[in-house]
Amino acid sequence: MPRIKVAAAHVAPIFLELGATIEKTCSIVSEAAAHDAQLVAFPETYISAFPVWSALRSPIHNHELFCRLVASSTLVDGPEMAQLCEAARKNRILVSVGFNEVTRNSVGSVYNSNVLISEDGAILNHHRKIVPTFYEKMTWSPGDGAGLRVCDTQCGRLGMLICGENTNPLARYTMMAEGEQIHISTYPPIWPSHAPGESAYDLAHAIRLRAGAHSFEAKAFNIVSSGFMDTAMFDFLAALDSEAGNILEASPRSVSLITGPSGTAIGDERCEEEGILYAELDLADCVEPKQFHDVSGGYNRFDIFTLTVDRTPHRPIVFANLSEPRQLELNSGDEESTDSV
């Protein structure tokens, strides 16, 4: 049970700019490693934007922004992700990062995804948010259960959930039942829910509740990395609509923090300023509280309650012909050969 130092990046991307955001991400990875952190976590869809515009104006006006989001997204095995993997390997640090994911199956599907990269530069886990929340459905396709797993790392057993997934008791229990010691929660910089003057969804308050609750129930540490809305992002979004700026001003900002197995925060938190949070964790602290409520062990009734998680990757096509690929030679007048799908 090691003692480790971890970092939560409360940072803004270079909004809708893939290359520049990747460069900034690599720089922060190096900075965290220089401060002796063994793990650094980045916010939800940090690469390269959270689509806040879906809350600010009608979707019929957002086609261009959707196309720009796709252009600033990346493949999980693309060159931009390879650049981040190399930064993790070079700095010998674990990296958790949220990104907008595109695929080779479609030019227009985007997933809200997160990867955990080892200190050797290998991708340990790739998770797609299982259900986009509210207006997020205008942008992201739903994910699957393939990434609902906890990984053995140099920092202990790590699990991760994205934003509203931390409200899902079954998703959180899945992490607990895999022996999770460190949980990573990622969130956007802001999440508008109501018009100015109405009762707004207090994102920071909700994050503190969820972070503390999961730590207390799992008896695990929780690294919360939320996005930060810088001036460039605010000015861009405020210019979209006459009411956009007022909505942004009235919507509570996000918060980054780290909680311990008792559910209480460790050290400071970040909200109004961009920066990196650091904390030293002793994984041995996860043991004693398990005497009280070990919900994945002695404090449960598995003869009464059962949970089955389907980790099958959901892909749009499966090829049943397992023979070696062959090149079709089609001459004028020949009939095209077909393989069964």
Query: Which fold name is given in CATH as the topology?
Result: Nitrilase/N-carbamoyl-D-aminoacid amidohydrolase
CATH architecture: 4-Layer Sandwich
User: Which descriptor suits the 3D outline?
Assistant: globular
H/E element sequence: EHEHHEEEEEHEHEHHEE
Major sheet: size, sense and barrel closure?
A: 6 strands, mixed
CATH superfamily: Carbon-nitrogen hydrolase
- The average pLDDT is 94
Q: How many individual β-strands?
A: 11
How big is the Rg?
A: 21 Å
Indicate the structural class.
alpha/beta
Overall helicity: 10-25%
As laid out across the biggest beta sheet, the strand order is 5-4-3-2-1-11
Distance between the termini: 49 Å
Tell me the strand percentage band.
15-25%
Poorly predicted parts: 328-341
H/I helix tally: 7
Topology:
Layout (H helix, E strand, L loop, with lengths): L2 E8 L7 H17 L4 E3 L21 H9 L7 H13 L2 E10 L2 E12 L5 E6 L22 E3 L2 E7 L6 H8 L5 E6 L15 H16 L2 E6 L4 H8 L5 H7 L6 E3 L15 E8 L59
List the keywords.
Nitrilase/N-carbamoyl-D-aminoacid amidohydrolase, alpha/beta, disordered C terminus, globular, 5-stranded mixed beta sheet, 7 helices, 6-stranded mixed beta sheet, 341 residues
Describe it for me?
The structure is a single chain. This protein is an alpha/beta fold and 341 residues long. The protein has one domain (3-291): Carbon-nitrogen hydrolase (Nitrilase/N-carbamoyl-D-aminoacid amidohydrolase). It has helices at residues 18-34, 63-71, 79-91, 169-176, 203-218, 231-238, 244-250; strands at 3-10, 39-41, 94-103, 106-117, 123-128, 151-153, 156-162, 182-187, 221-226, 257-259, 275-282. It is globular and about 55 Å long. 23% of the residues lie in helices and 21% in strands. It has a six-stranded mixed sheet.
